[in-house]
Amino acid sequence: AQTVTQSQPEMSVQEAETVTLSCTYDTSESDYYLFWYKQPPSRQMILVIRQEAYKQQNATENRFSVNFQKAAKSFSLKISDSQLGDAAMYFCAFQGTGGFKTIFGAGTRLFVKA
Amino acid sequence: DAGVIQSPRHEVTEMGQEVTLRCKPISGHDYLFWYRQTMMRGLELLIYFNNNVPIDDSGMPEDRFSAKMPNASFSTLKIQPSEPRDSAVYFCASSLGGLVVEQFFGPGTRLTVL
Predict the structure, then answer these.
(1) 3-state secondary structure of A30
(2) Helix, strand, coil percentages in chain B from 3-state DSSP, rounded to 5
(3) Cα–Cα distance between A22 and A72 in angstroms, integer?
(4) Which of A77, B12, B56, B84 has a C-alpha 20 to 30 A away from that of B36?
């Protein structure tokens, strides 16, 4: 069975600085998809970025980028130039190609200090 | 589009009562998902539909839980009878076709069973 592990329950970053959130996963599949979702205090889950396992190039969305290490089964999220609005829970998620069963990690709560 | 709509936003009920949560997916989306979020278990997929047909309900915790999708614009998640351990935030999400696409989440329903 697939598992997703986020080992950092909480992280803190100074405004304008860079922070990296860690995620590891376990799967026997070779093709799959990885996501980072953001959940602000409003509870709304918002997709931040996604990565297809067959793509070697790391995904980037503006200030958000990932470091995808397939062999190590690692999928970290880097937030550059952190803003107060980045404060939220961040969930790493895995989806295999066999269906829509998305497995979510436990989440990392990010605090941004002004 | 207004996004995924869920009602009610908050529900407080007594143990043993029937609870019905409602969801209106984004117009045109053909996949609908129900998730439950708790501190202990994180975010869990309960069931998902494709074109109003339940595809995978393996995440439904027990027979007290049931979900229906009578048409493309409406789904319900019912708990009967409710128990205190059902207290959680329930999310509905929808997506448009394909295997790996963004799931758009609703704002969630916070359920408290006393």
Answers:
(1) coil
(2) 5, 55, 45
(3) 12
(4) A77
pLDDT at A99 over 80: no
Using an 8 Å CB-CB cutoff, list residues of chain B that contact chain A.
31, 33, 42-45, 48, 55-56, 59, 89, 91, 93, 99-100, 102-103, 105, 107-108
Q: Does the distance separating the beta carbons of B105 and A44 come in below 8 Å?
A: yes
What does the pLDDT average to over A13-24? 97
Could you tell me the CA-to-CA distances from A27 to A2, A35, A47, A57, A111 in Å, in that order? 5, 15, 22, 20, 30
Between CA B92 and CA B33 the distance in angstroms is 6
Tokens of A25: 């996963």
Summarised one tens digit per residue, pLDDT across range B57-69 is 988 988 999 999 9
* Lookup result for tokens 């690692």: A74
